[in-house]
Design a protein that fits this description.
Length: 251
């Protein structure tokens, strides 16, 4: 699938919570499985594994069932949660662009048998299947998101930051901040307080990875070449409650 289709999907994608529990056909599942092997890494030195599992492979949950899930497993090392978010958001957009509903699942977990099937640490699930509700939003006005000025002070790149602004996150908290200009953009994650840290510490780096993929995809859609870098000269925003994660250099 061409990346411009993924970019267009940013502006209409939504989380689907009601599914037809009829499994997708085998050809479609094979296409999805094959696409999992093409995902870009944020950090290439982190080993990851993806498994497509069924509704009976997931523990009892509060959220409604879906016929299929993608389970992400990863080597536990610095940046692994952000890397998982960056990679799985590619599938989120890909599936939505193919007419398949998706929803990130923060609470549900695979059953013990699935967890034992991988030597890596389980990270998170994303549900997918045929939607029993409208698949896409009618327009950007239907998104409930922060304003650009609340998440960014990047100069000269509003068209890129709009794609970031629409990225999904746990409870729509958007725990990120971006700064920079049209040549390099730095991404930061919020440093949660004690209570929020207990509840959402694991999800924050995943969310930042999701948003960072939207940034990279948007930049490439506008014809910019991109390079992911760790910039030691990036501004220190710790006094504002943010910690530096990584940067995207634009050419």
């Amino acid at each position: 699938m061409e990346k411009n289709k993924l970019y267009e999907t940013i502006f209409k994608r939504k989380s689907i919570r009601n599914y037809d529990l009829t499994p997708l056909d085998q050809n479609t599942l094979t296409e999805i499985k094959n696409h999992l092997n093409t995902l870009e890494f944020l950090y290439e030195d982190i080993k990851t594994e993806f498994k497509i599992i069924g509704t009976d492979d997931v523990k009892r949950r509060i959220m409604k069932k879906s016929p299929h899930y993608i389970a992400v497993f990863s080597e536990n090392k610095e940046g692994y949660l952000t890397n998982a978010g960056f990679m799985l958001q590619q599938m989120d957009l890909y599936l939505s662009a193919k007419g398949i509903g998706t929803c990130w699942q923060g609470i549900p977990q695979p059953k013990k048998e699935v967890l034992k099937s991988s030597d890596l640490e389980f990270v998170i699930l994303i549900a997918f299947g045929k939607a029993k509700e409208p698949l896409h939003r009618k327009g950007v006005a239907e998104f409930k998101r922060k304003s650009l000025k609340e998440i960014s002070d990047v100069h000269g790149a509003d068209e890129l930051m709009e794609a970031v602004r629409l990225a999904p996150s746990a409870s729509n908290n958007q725990p990120w901040f971006f700064t920079g200009d049209e040549n390099i953009i730095h991404v930061y994650a919020i440093k949660p307080g004690f209570i929020r840290g207990l509840l959402a510490k694991r999800y924050i780096p995943i969310d930042v990875g999701i948003a960072f993929y939207h940034l990279k995809l948007a930049a490439e859609n506008y014809g910019r070449k991109t390079e992911i870098v760790f910039d030691k000269t990036a501004p220190d925003y710790s006094s504002k409650g943010y910690e530096y994660i990584t940067s995207l250099r634009l050419k």
